[in-house]
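Weekly structure sync, notes
Attendees: PL (lead), two postdocs, one rotation student
Agenda item 3: pending single-chain targets
PL asked that the sequence for the first pending target be pasted directly into the notes so everyone works from the same version. It is reproduced below exactly as submitted, 162 residues in total.
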Amino acid sequence: MTQNTEHNVRTRGEQQTALIAIIEVGDMVDPFKRMEVAKQHILEAETRGAEEHRRKDADGYLFDNPDTGTEYLPHHPIESGECQYAENIREATSAELLSDLQAAWTSWKEDREEKEKATTNVAALEAALRTIAERADREGATIDDDECAAIARAALTREGEV
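Predicted structure, written out during the meeting:
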């Protein structure tokens, strides 16, 4: 364990030894049983300490809102009455919030790039269809569906989609 500047902190072993020395209940005179009881008490204390430390480090709560997806609140969603149907509620540290934010940002960028690509493809297809219409008007002819599809496919291929 680390040393606190205000007072000494016992190691886990020292704590167990001290606890064994004071445990003498009923059939607990066996030193091995006392050691096991002491270990269990220390483990429970460490678990509580770790949980308390995590609570202190938490900067809010992440949870799943059935209506909107993952959300964040600085306070507990159900206890505060803000989201009665919150699911998968978990305390979140700054690092966890940052990680979720980065994942959301990456997803948003990918969605935006897909939308821009689709917009470009639609523009290419519209240009190809205008070419078909202008050509048909100039020649006074009609273009069958297969030829129209071939021109549109060629335009999309130039844009890297087909």
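Discussion points:
- Residues 12-57 form one domain.
- Strands lie at 60-65, 69-73, 87-92.
Action: rotation student to compare against the earlier draft before next sync.
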